[in-house]
Structures are given as structure tokens and as C-alpha cells.
Design brief:
It is a single chain. This protein has 383 residues and is of the alpha/beta class. Helix content is 41%, strand content 15%. It is built from 13 helices and 13 strands. The strands form three sheets. A seven-stranded mixed sheet has the order 2-8-7-6-5-3-4, sandwiched between helices. Strands 9-10-13-12 form a four-stranded antiparallel sheet. A two-stranded parallel sheet has the order 1-11. The N and C termini lie far apart (49 Å). The model has no long low-confidence stretch (mean pLDDT 96).
């Protein structure tokens, strides 16, 4: 049988693969502690669930406009303006099935064959796969602990070519948890000042910040026109399964193209989820969000201190998100993770999934009890 060339170039998500394997082993009765999933362990806040129930009771179960219901678009625009300093209007935003579909729509609408997309490493696993599927060329910029795993203006300048189409920025970062300061973003923006390069700013972890503050690239003077801001409710509001992502762009022609694509792929997102998202964006769960952030901070501190007390392992202290980016002995991260899972029943994600060897990612989006138990097993494994 013959298959489309583009589909054969895509590899399955290794983070999902590791999580699935851990679930299968656990179902077989094996004692598995999984630190692989990028998913909060908290329930969705009650007020959001109640909004969904009210939508069901009122019969709000029909198709909606592809881009989302008007009141949700208004709430997103208001959020962008008041919380991020981003001057998007309601007719400049759209809602998709998670931030991942927002990314897919944007790459598909912008990339022509051979266009270059600059991606800092380590990267979230889906970026390069979506670029490849769209016919683009990935241009990876290596980072290190010396720069807190952030690219420099000099690196960006050297990477630019006439074919550069998009720069992908993620802050806070998955998998490192690092955050670009306003000054660092401004310096990168200066490099792009006289170019036509788009910036895709992935801000899905914006509310999970423990040190410093998070700043939106599009809020820099003169940068909003080139910026596509992507966000969603999965991480900060613990709504992973609801699949609510959204984006903003000042380019209404680009928005039109993305809506056309979505109209032929999924149409609108679930109508009930839109009502739930509206309640979340209107602030009904703000106290719950802050309580979750504080819990993640405590878990971060526990995991960071314990991990750096294990001989042979080290990590920088993440400023946001809910991951530790751990340096391991040797360069074979897949072998490390396989042996750890087999010998101690601990599931981590190999660094190669994020484009970098010699590291593994540990999610601390789980209970303190599980973190303590996992650290003990890691200590035994390293011994």
C-alpha cells in the first residue's frame, strides 16, 4: 500500500508514548510511578463544571460558529488586553481544539515548502513534527544551562536567512521551565525589527510562574503585528480533556485562512466546553488557579531539592510550568529511561524527545507523596 509522503515523516509523540506505556504496565499490576505526563492532577474547578452542566441542561448542544461563540471571543480578547497587554479585538481571535490545533492551523496557513522555522532546543515535541508536516524546514538553535536554556540575539541573528518564516518562542518553557524576561524578549525583537519573520508565541504555561514574571512578546512595542499568540486552558485551569485552545492575530487574512482550514477539519470545538471556558475566563476559578499554582510551587521546590541531592543528577530551578529538566550521566536518554522504568518502575521522558541528549524530563504535576517516592527510587537507581 502507498501512503502520503507527508504522513510517513511524522513520528508519534514520545511523551504520549511513555505515558501510555506506564499506564499499560500499571494496568498489568506493576508498581509504576509516572512523571511523564504534562497534565495537572487536579480536578477541573467546580464552578467551571457547573457552567458546563448548566449548558447541558439548557440544551446548548448544537453546532456553533467555527471560531467560537461571540461571548467567548469577547472574553478572550478582554483577557489578552487586561492580563497580557495584547491589543487583540474579538474579531482577531479564534478558538480551537486545544493549543495544539492552534499551532497546526498556524503552521499550515503560513508555511510553504522550504520555508524555515527557527525552534530553540530543547523544544516541545510537537513543534518540529508539525513544521515537517507543513512542508517547512526546522532550524534548531541549541541552548545550554549557561543561558538558562534560552536563545541569544546573536544566535537568532546568525540563524536568519531569506527563507526564515517563523520563530517559535515558548515562555514559560516546556521542558525546561525557564522564562524569557522582558529585556531578553526585547533584544530578540530588535533582531527581527526589519524582517518579515512571524513570531509564534506559545504562552500555555503563563499562569504557572513561581519566580519573576511572564511577559508576552506581542506586548513589546511594534511587535504585535508579527506575533501569533497561542494559549489555552489545559494547564493553568486543569482542563486538559476539555480541549480549549485559543489564539490571537492582528492579520485578519491569516485568521480567515485558519478558520477555513478548521471549518473543513473539526469545525467548532465542543459547545459545552465553550460555556465552561467562558466561566473560566470570566474569573470564577481564580482562587482555584492560585491554589493550584501554590501547590505546584511546593512540588517544584520539593522535587528540585531532592533531585539535586542525588549524586549524578542535576537540574536548574524552573521558574514556571511543572517540569524538571534533568542532566543525566552519559548521552543515551532513551536507554536511561527504559532501564529506570524496568528496574524501579519510574517513568520519565527521554531528552531526545525534545531534541537534546543527556537529559530527561520529569513532570511534578502529581502529589508530593508520589514525588518523594519517585525521588527515593531515582536515588536507588543511581546508586
Amino acid at each position: 500500500m502507498m501512503y502520503a509522503d507527508r504522513i510517513t515523516k511524522i513520528a508519534p509523540s514520545q511523551t504520549i508514548a511513555i505515558t501510555t506505556l506506564a499506564q499499560e504496565l500499571k494496568a498489568q499490576g506493576k508498581d509504576i510511578l509516572s512523571f511523564s505526563a504534562g497534565e495537572p492532577d487536579f480536578d477541573t474547578p467546580p464552578c467551571i463544571e457547573e457552567a458546563a452542566k448548566a449548558a447541558i441542561d439548557s440544551g446548548f448542544s448544537k453546532y456553533t460558529a467555527v471560531k467560537g461563540i461571540p461571548e467567548l471571543l469577547q472574553a478572550i480578547a478582554k483577557k489578552f488586553q487586561s492580563e497580557n497587554g495584547l491589543d487583540y479585538n474579538a474579531d482577531e481571535v479564534m478558538v480551537s481544539n486545544g493549543a495544539k490545533q492552534c499551532l497546526f492551523n498556524a503552521f499550515q496557513a503560513l508555511i510553504n515548502p522550504g520555508d524555515e522555522v527557527i525552534i530553540p532546543t530543547p523544544y516541545w515535541v510537537s513543534y518540529p513534527e508539525l513544521v515537517t508536516y507543513s512542508g517547512g524546514k526546522n532550524v534548531f538553535l541549541s541552548t545550554s544551562a549557561a543561558t538558562e536554556f534560552k536563545i541569544t540575539p546573536d544566535q537568532l541573528q546568525k540563524a536568519l536567512t531569506p527563507k526564515t518564516k517563523i520563530l517559535v518562542l515558548t515562555t514559560p518553557s516546556n521542558p525546561t521551565g525557564m522564562i524569557y524576561t522582558k529585556e531578553e524578549l526585547r533584544a530578540l525583537g530588535e533582531v527581527l525589527k526589519d524582517t518579515k519573520v512571524w513570531v509564534l508565541s506559545d504562552e500555555i504555561y503563563e499562569k504557572l510562574v513561581y519566580e519573576g514574571s511572564m511577559f508576552s512578546f506581542g506586548a513589546l512595542e511594534g511587535q504585535l503585528e508579527r506575533t501569533i499568540t497561542i494559549n489555552g486552558l489545559s494547564k493553568a485551569v486543569s482542563m486538559t480533556g476539555w480541549r480549549v485552545g485559543y489564539l490571537g492575530t492582528k492579520d485578519k487574512t491569516l485568521l480567515k485562512h485558519m478558520l477555513a482550514l478548521q471549518s473543513h477539519s473539526t469545525s467548532s470545538i465542543n459547545s459545552i466546553a465553550q460555556k465552561a471556558a467562558l466561566a473560566a475566563l470570566q474569573g470564577c476559578a481564580d482562587k482555584d488557579i492560585e491554589n493550584m499554582r501554590l501547590a505546584f510551587k511546593e512540588r517544584r521546590d520539593t522535587a528540585y531539592a531532592g533531585l539535586n541531592g542525588i549524586k549524578g543528577l542535576s537540574a536548574l530551578k524552573p521558574q514556571g510550568a511543572f517540569y524538571l529538566w534533568i542532566q543525566i550521566p552519559g548521552q543515551n536518554s532513551m536507554e536511561f529511561c527504559q532501564k529506570l522504568l524496568e528496574e524501579q518502575g519510574v517513568a520519565l521522558v527521554p531528552g531526545i524527545a525534545f531534541g537534546v541528549e543527556g537529559f530527561v524530563r520529569m513532570s511534578y504535576a502529581c502529589s508530593l507523596e508520589q514525588i518523594h517516592a519517585g525521588l527515593e527510587r531515582l536515588k536507588k537507581f543511581m546508586a
